[in-house]
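Explain the record.
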Amino acid sequence: MSYQTLANAVTARIEIKKSDFIAYAYSVTSREQAMTYVEQLKNQYPDARHHCWAYIIGDPSNTTSAGFDDDGEPSGTAGRPILNVLQHKAIGNVIIIVVRYFGGIKLGAGGLTRAYAGSAQAVIDEMKLVPYIPMVQVQIATDYAHEAQIRYLIGTVAGQVDDVTYTNEVMVTATMEMAKVPEFAENLGVSGRILEQ
């Protein structure tokens, strides 16, 4: 499951026959998160004619986790072209939203398709892509004497301590690469135990 994703949010703007196309790209890991960005842009540009989008959650070769919307543009002229560009570039965990201000000149179906694909390409050209690395949160139970050892071991797999709670034992919550959990568990030995996820 090797693919690329967006390092940080980017935007690009193109003008075609007086229509303004403002494209935004965000890194997302769920449909709910993707729809939050769509709502934010609708609030930011309430007077725009259309807010068209496409997203891919997860592996871009698995299109069951993809979605798109033409938001009032003729069917197939906006969301689908954006999605096609994303799939062609093999970028996952991303949404591209294109805000359109109508300039008074109709572009026609072919012109719209090219405009939305062009907007998606323009924002992709701005992207800094990074390999997607599946992360997982683990909970580790340990005693007070081994807390420092646990923190050290989390560091050896480039993990990050998210939270520590102290009761009759120490509960450490950490985030690390999914692929490194077996190595971490092996190194843990008797100093602690990973609780069921």
